[in-house]
Amino acid sequence: MESFWHAADGYPIRRIDWQPAGEAAGSILFLPGRGDFYEKYLETLAHWASMGWRVTASDWRGQAGSGRLGNDQVTGHVDDFGIWIADLALLWSRWAAETPGPHVLIAHSMGGHLALRAVAEGAVSPDAVVLSAPMLGLPSRGVPDAAMHAVAWLMAVIGDRRRPAWKWSEKPLEFPAGRQNLLTHDPARYGDEGWWRTKRPELAMGPGSWGWVERAYASIRALKRPGVLEAVQAPVLIVATDADGLVDFGAIARAAARLPDGELLRFGPEARHEILREEDGVRDRAIAGIDAFLAKVSQQGAAAVR
């Protein structure tokens, strides 16, 4: 069932919910990445519901079917990532109160970054966390984050922070050439994204703004500070590939090692950024790893109730 929930300032944000057929094993809240939309993950969300989980997915404010915060309907912008953290904290408090535990937070890419930051800051308190290719660093070819952040800051202040930071396509709303090579080896699952964008044109989003880039670096650097990830007590499973062209795998591996109860399920060149939308062999391995993790969480939750 699709509906809207409202943030603290009244901003409407989409969500979708599944009820399991029988007694729930627990509840999952899923959050997509930058420029993403939950329709791309219906296959996976339905799978978790079939495994007995109560499942909810939500947009981020300002993307997918929840409007825009920039100058147009293509560029993704936010004034600060803290806005999204506050939205997530409110959604979590309401959602956790109305759903059965244990409560699991699952998120992809930028959503993974925000989810982990929210946990580290105490804005949410899940029983477990699953991150798919989390944006814990951006590819920089060895240039330090501080230098990249300085460049992004300069580009943001010398013009409109809401202007696009990179080129999209010559034709509005069309995918750039070669985009699939960054996301998935599976042409059918990649094509599914285009089908949804045709069916629901409001879902289409292109580049991020310079303001988004600058705030992304600020948030990434904050999460890398000593003691931040070390304070995360929830078990965290990270699914990632060292062949990712959109996020920095090295940053992911270092973060996994810092987490007190962190586990890394690593893929190689057989996987691209959207591991949950990869070819069956890769996706099946990822889903199996996540399912085993979820089963352990559910069993621990049941034992705690007894």
Structure description:
Helix 2 (81-98) packs across helix 3. The chain is globular. An eight-stranded mixed sheet has the order 1-2-4-3-5-6-7-8, with helices on both faces. It has helices at residues 42-50, 81-98, 110-120, 145-157, 180-183, 187-199, 210-223, 249-258, 280-305; strands at residues 2-6, 12-18, 26-31, 53-58, 103-108, 128-132, 236-241, 262-267. The longest helix is centred in the last third of the chain and has 26 residues, at 280-305. The two termini are 32 Å apart. The protein is α/β, with parallel strands linked by helices and 306 residues long. The chain has a single domain (2-140, 177-206, 224-305), classed as 3-Layer(aba) Sandwich (Rossmann fold). The protein has nine helices and eight strands.
The radius of gyration computed from the alpha-carbon positions, rounded to a whole number of angstroms, is 18 Å
Low-confidence stretches: none
Helix content: 25-40%
CATH class: Alpha Beta
What is the typical, i.e. mean, pLDDT? 95
CATH superfamily: Alpha/Beta hydrolase fold, catalytic domain
The appropriate CATH architecture is: 3-Layer(aba) Sandwich
| Biggest sheet strand line-up | 1-2-4-3-5-6-7-8
- What proportion of the residues form beta strands (DSSP E)? 15-25%
Number of helices: 9
Number-wise, the strands total 8
Structural class: alpha/beta
Order of helices and strands: EEEHEHEHEHHHHEHEH
Largest sheet: 8 strands, mixed
The CATH topology label is: Rossmann fold
3D shape? globular
Total domain modules: 1
What kind of oligomer do you see?
A: single chain
End-to-end distance: 32 Å
